[in-house]
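Blinded run. Sample ID left blank on purpose so nobody reads anything into the name before looking at the predicted structure. Input follows.
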Amino acid sequence: MTDTKIFHHYQLTRPLGGDWLGAMHVATDLDEGREVALRVLDETTSGQSFLLMQLERLLLRVSTLKHAHLLPTGELQTRAGRAFYAMDLGRAGSARALLQAQAKEARPLPLVTAVELVRQAAAGLAHAHAHGLMHGNLKPENLILQPGRALLGQTGYVTQLSDFGLAELRAGSYGTHDRAVVNALAYMSPEQCRGVRNELRTDLYALGLVLYELLTGLVPFDIRDAADALEKHQHVAPRQPSALRPEMPEALEEVILTCLAKDPEDRYPDAAALEGALQGILNGLMPGGPEPTVRLSALPFLPPPPPLDGVTPGADLNLLIFSERHELLRTLPVTDATLTVGRAHSNSVVLEHAGVSRHHLNVTFQAGQASVTELTATNGAVMDGLPLTPMTPLRWPERTPLYLRPYWLVLVPPRRAPTRARIVVTPDVDRLTLTPGRPAQLHLNLANTGVTVDHFRLSLDGIPEDWVLDAHQEVQLNPGMQGSATLTVQAPRDSRARAGTYDVTVVARSRENPEETGRAPLKVVVTPFHETVATLLPPTRRTWRHTTYTLKLENKGNTDLILAPQLRDNEGEVHVLPRLQDLVQLPQAPNAAGHVVNPEQLAREAARQAAMEARNQATSAARRILMGQGRIRVTDMPARVTLAAGARSEDTIKVRVPLRWFGSPSQHTLQVNVQPVNDQNEIEDRVVTSAEGQLHHLPLIPLWLLPILILLLGVLIWWLTRPPQITQFDLSGSDTVVAPGQPFTLRWDTSNARNVSILELGGTGQNLTGDGQLKVDGIQKDQKYTLVARSLLGRRVERSQVVQARFERPVIEQFDVTPARVSGNQPVTVTWRVKNAAQVSISELGNVNASGTRKFIPNKDTTFTLTAKNGSERESDQRTVSVLGPEVKEFKLTPPRVKKGESAVLSWNVVNATQVSIDGLGTVAATGKRTVTPRDEGNATYVITATGAGGLTKSANIRLELVTPKPEFTGFEVTPNPVDSDQQFKISWKTKNATGVSVQYGEGTEESGPSGETIKQAPLLSTTITLTARNDAGDQVSVSKQLNVNLIDQTAKAAAEAAKQAQQAEKAAQEQENTNVGKVSFTAEPQTITGEGDVTLNWQADGFAEVSIKPLIGNRPNGRFDPTGTKRIEKVNTTRTYTLVLYLRNNKQKTIERTVKVVPLPVKINAFTLSQTQLSAPGTVTLTWDVANAPSVRIAGLKGPLANGQWPARGSTPVPVGATRTFTLTAGNQVQRQTVKVTLPPPAVQSFTLNPTQITGKGVVVLSWKVQNAAAVRIDGVKGPNRDGSWPAQGQTPVPVSATRTFVLRAGTAKATQTVTVTAAPTPQITGFTANPSVLTGPGAVTLSWTAQNTSAVRLTGPAGMIGTTHPASGRASVQVMKTGTYTVTAGGQSRKVTVTVKPAPQTNPAVTPPTGGTATPQVQSEGTRITNFRASRSAINAGESVTFNWFTINAKVVRIEGVPGDLPPRGEVTITPSQTQTYTLTADDVVYKTPITVRVRDTGGANYSDLSGTWTHPFGVVTMTVTGKSGTGTFSSNRPGVPGVTIELVFNGDTVTATSQKNPDFSFVASLRSGRKAMLGTYTLKGEQERWCMYRPGTPRPAECK
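Blinded prediction complete.
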């Protein structure tokens, strides 16, 4: 490769990197004009012929795998010593480039994008694996990306896998199978680390690693080198991906971890199963939409496309949609450059059918040409009888039907307006005469009336293209210029150039725009010419009686002809008879007298002439027979032959010659002259062609044949008088010996014999044929047979044959006894085969068949004798077998020395034995192993005895020695050392050959097993720890270690550590929060609205758990929103400011405001009235108003149902009026007022009470009052709910008091008073507090009991802090005490303490037991209840399925799970079947687990909500529901002014209920069922305004979120 940018037919654009094979470039294929990825192998690699051969085979195999998710790869080529191949270019890069881009943006890849990328890769792998091709080195660089359709607003890609098999090829070129040498270390599989090859599930492991990295941005293992890779891939579990990305679905995490299983058997069985699992995940991530596409059954044949003959083009490009019955359903004009077809309503063309996918086709238009792409639809699409390839653009020609079952789609181009001709062509003549075979010149004048330079191609339409000798010549003309050109025209001199006049069009066609032409008419006259050929076939005939000729006529001219063939006879020897049809079909031409000849009369005349000819022949019959003289007769000669130009005809002419008996051959010449017939049907007196043939007349007997006939007569006489001969007489077969009684066959062969017989056979042997054979019955003695042959004239010949009767001698073909040497009880195989034997016997076996095989077990040396007899013939043979004695080949103990209690393996191998026994073990097999353990303190001896055939025996013995090794320590550790005085330390040890260990710590000694560990509380001073090991023999060994103790101030240490950790956590959290705040985006579109419109809010606040958008209420139970989302607010008609609230640390908030300005229409108050303007007493009036162009209005003093107390623009409301009052309606800048005048009597206080009237300490009193003739009252010192601080005329209110107080009620001039007396409260006193027991021996439970007075609750604290929250004034509590501590009860300012002492448990010597691998470590319990684990087997189930919860707690007495009845054990599992989506919370004692578990129940169509029927309470009314299945009806009642009561329709989906009203479209509510199905939380909407809302069953506590 040179330094230029051109390599072969590629132009290199930019480098793409390189690898071990060579460099990669982006290149342009100059032949095809497309961009490709070109890999050019370096010079070293290009010189390895074996590698190139392997690479070429690999690329050829990859190129045959046609799949949408496999990268198309070209074949290997070599130019100038450099090898290279091309691949499709990844227009969207690779998965590695995508990961790098996401890392720069510090944003993870969307879940749906990552899952879809790997799902497509799994589909490609499944196709490759199905064809036996494994990748072997998958990594993100091999996932090549092409642009694809978007998913959920995210950029979409099409994944294509590349570089199949290159890793294996590289390993072969390196001469190694070590994957660590050639593979990417981070993406190796465990089996590759072990050197396993050709495991297809290796690719699934690598694909799981890629999916892990796409979702988390990290690989599961930090790989430093090859050794690190081998260790972690095989033995280290991957980090949980959900820990790095919490929002990851549990099912997706399960898919990843299944792929990353260490054992291939634990992964998915194949790539297709992985693809199916990822498709299920993808379906769960996609939002709810249309029902899934139905896979249609296969059609036996494709239905016919619709006919397009009646379809006329329109003004625009149209898309026609036909049904399968060819009904035109829709005509859609195509105006956009791209349109999509599918079932989803977001498509440009929506086809509502279950078999159509939601996104089925994508059609693009570029330069007037349509391309269609099938978007991996369920049922695909078909064009021109072939299915479309998914995700591959294909040209869609106009008016070509495309079948998208059950629709036909056709693109019809628009009408093309005729263009004004800008090319003028004029010939010099109007008529051009052509003589066939001669060229003629046609001169043309041209003019270019256009505005551009053009080249014009000249042609003649109307005559064959090859007549123009210089066809398609071009003439260049500038704009406005004229020119001339000459065409040479020549009609060929053959029948194709028919004579006549042709209408021809002279065409001048633009080369730049072939549709633009210039035309001129021209007449072309072709002159006639004649050429006729006649042939008489065959040229020569020889006959003695009859023969035929074929007359072949051919018209090679360019006009039609009528020909008359005539047979010329100058010698008068030929008589010609015409065909009868020629006589009938002769034209009725008038005779000389002008009369028309009658054809019937002419036929009678011909018959008369034929009769006369017959009489003439009869008179000369004798002369013709004897001499062979007469005329030659010719029949079936055609009279007229009509031939079109270029046509030919063939007629058969029959010839008969007179019969001649003797003589020599004579020769005659037959000449046929062909004359034309003119237009008057007259034969012209000229010959246009002729044909000639030779006829040779042969006699029956030529003169030269007479001598030969005389010679043959003499031979015949000799043949008839010759004597007979016997050439053969014997048995069938060369042998003349047969077995007695066995039939045999005699055969003979004679010549010149008319009669053959065998004398000895009597009648059977008479009148036999000259050649033959005869079967004779068997004979018992020798017999002579005589064959007699007689000729035609009676001459006789004899021959004799003697047949002998003999028995055949037996033949022993095989006799084997194997093996020749055997041991006892081992069988031998006797095999024999004997021929010609009537009886066969074998000693030891008796009589046997002529051949066979037998088994025989000899117990001594044996000789087998085979005897074969056939009559008097006899044959025998012998074989001898030797039997071997027993032999002990092996008898040993492993090991030969063992310790007491240990075992050894006794193994033996004995041959040639019928029985084997071992002392103590009994009879055993000839070969085997046994584990033996000595039962006493001494050595053990084992004796083996083998018995063989004939009673032979053989013995051997062996001794097992017992040894007792001395004990020794193999490990002794004290950790930590040194140890802080407030900590614990661990003593661990391991010994060898020891039965027990004594642990000496301080003054005491603890006995333990030979290996183990123990945990001790550190003493205050340093000490020595001594361990002594002993065995059963009494041997002992001791080891010691010094324990250094640091005296620690625990309080100071804990405080410093906590402060440090808190400071670090605070700093990291603050930095992360500042980063997250900088990335927050919040937009409101549009920013300006005229009148009324919809507003869309978009926000993204990564790193925050939730956000608020004021004044909106979010979808979460607390009214907040997800950190990322979109919200559409409909019918916004006032300027609004939306505030995004970010909840920062330390209870701080950050706000981002976006204002949508609404330019209002002019506000107009159409009406504002009062039902009454005069009242004589307090009462109720109704305000009615109607305001245009305002979303809401304000009424001074009246709080409306809308936000900020406003009212709808149109409505009415009752208002209680107690005094003269003016109502002011404000809408925008418009104001109207209405006044109601009330004449009131003087107020009167009917009642004013106080309850209670006396309180001890402090408390709450309830004031109640009722006043007549007053709109409001005042209570001194107590502010009321009205704006001026007054109270309604009737009501009650609680008031806290802590001292004696007098309340004064004032209503105008009337007033009333009430006094409450407060006395001082007694001081709380603790009358008792005990602990039982107060002294424990070791950790245990203690019951605390207490009594207190003058208080309602007390608090308990212990060494670990507060115990619970509060407790009643008297009661008891059980606590778990681990060490000595003090417990305190507090009531008000009083407290009392009690101390519980925990003494160490007494030391006991445990029984010494045989070692089991270690001693159990005593469990150290910590104070307080802890929950270490709470998990569910599945987070999402279908209705009717079960889920299992498992949990683990420490120090818990009572465990409960909200939603699961009953108390549960501290650890365990429980399986339930939820009926709906529900959240479960685990509580252990008073401790609540930090993370509740929500189990989502999918609705599979069988959900039942009938239990929700009935009455529900909401904050301002009641809801009644009647539910059937997943829908229902009901009523919504309200006691709030301005909120109407309506009938509602209910729809249930999962745990969500939606209510709407047909009578009031502005009303709706959406609520979610709470756990237990006793409450619902959601939003209530009326006239575009939303409010947080709830409802609950009567008798059920009102939810805390329901405010």
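Unblinding after everyone has recorded impressions. The chain is about 10% helix and 45% strand.
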